[in-house]
Amino acid sequence: MDFAFIIHPMNVNDIVTRFKGTKRLPREFVEKWFSRLPAFKYSKIEGIKSQSTGRTISGIFIGCPLTTEQMLSFPEHYVVQKIIKAGRVAEKAGAGIVGLGAMTSVVADAGITIAQQLKIPVTTGNSYTVAMAMEGTKEAAAKMGIDIAEAHVVVIGATGAIGAVCSHLVSRECKYLTLIARDRTKLDNLARSIMHQTGQAVKITNNLKKALKSAQIVITVTSSGGDIIQPEDLPPGCVVCDVARPRDVSLRVAGARKDVLVIEGGLVQVPGKVTTNLNLGYPPDVTLACIAETMILAMENRFESYTLGRSLTFEQVDEIYKLGEKHGFKLAGLRSFEKPVTAEEIRSIRDNAGHGASTAGIG
User: Fold this and answer.
1) Strand stretches in the chain, DSSP E
2) CB of 311 within 8 A of CB of 127?
3) How far apart are CA 348 and CA 197, in angstroms?
């Protein structure tokens, strides 16, 4: 077993989907019952093959029995201990490295304590998540006819590990930048850092709804637990890259707004004939960038704690992107709410937004 990756249910409905016998039980009871279970092996993933070396690796998904809401509301120490126990399942399975998925990469000190308590290295996958989120955002903007050099970009969750690096990177390319986060002091510090490094004067705010009214490109990567962006918040023709898990963009947007393009950030095409019983809503050979980072490190025999804590470096992002390219990992096209986005759908979105005259970059 080359690697392991820790996952958890987004909500109680995910538990009911796996444990069919709980379907008729009260949701509160099911969630409480599930949280008392030990961590468990969920599924294998096999057939990941490097396009450059021909090496094939395999891994295992470990279930941490806490929902997103529980991870946000339970005592921090308790949650961290549950994640550590999941990591020990990975150790016993013989994994060389373990990745942290969704909220397990966010709680407490973002993996540092977990890595200290395990005998195998740990990564959050945030470096590759940044790389693929930026690539996906640029591709989506181009297909929507948005020139990023002239665009107003809004980053939500800007002071987090992923958000801060995305903010720095996009500040080098866009004309206008607004950063949104809860902590005003951290926002001030980030804005000064960007000004120092790039000369870009950015706006900062806590008012999400007001900032979104003039946004052309939105990158959202909070740990709020979901649904902070509603249909009425978005202007026509904008592109939203939702990197957060659970999603920051409400599912209502998919049905109510046919004039905006929402893409899922950080989705990666995995090389090889990949098989797994885990259903994340994507084909077996498409996965989240945080999972792909763990795979890439295993493929490289880089059994080290690569991305930990809340500070990422541009060098890490660049290196893991190049390693992914080396082995054949790449952006998995554009996907929205777990479905591929076609050229025809993008044309329709542009038409609905009043951008239908130009179709350059679509196809």
Assistant:
1) 3-7, 40-49, 56-63, 98-100, 122-123, 152-156, 176-180, 203-205, 217-220, 239-242, 261-264, 267-269, 272-276, 286-288, 330-331, 335-336, 339-340
2) no
3) 39
pLDDT at 131: 97
Which domains are delineated in the chain?
A: 3-127+270-331 (no CATH), 130-267+333-353 (3.40.50.720)
Nearest CA to 222 out of 166, 174, 168, 293 is that of: 166
Spans in the chain with pLDDT lower than 50: 356-363
Q: pTM for this one?
A: 0.92
* pLDDT of amino acid 244: 92
CA 167 to chain centre: 15
Secondary structure (3-state) at 138: helix
CA–CA dist 129, 198 (Å, integer): 22
What are the residues whose beta carbons fall under 8 Å from the beta carbon of 11, sequence distance 6 or more? 67, 68, 69, 246
Helix axes 126-143, 289-299, angle to 10 degrees: 120
Across 115-125, b (16+ Cβ under 10 Å) vs e yields beebebbbbbb
The number of beta carbons lying within 10 Å of the beta carbon of residue 363 is 9
Q: What is the predicted pLDDT for the residue at 226? A: 79
pLDDT (0 to 100) of residue 357 = 37
For residue 327, the number of C-alpha atoms closer than 13 Å in the C-beta half-sphere is: 27
pLDDT number for residue 359: 37
Phi-psi label, residue 288: left if phi above 0, alpha if psi -120 to 50, beta otherwise? beta
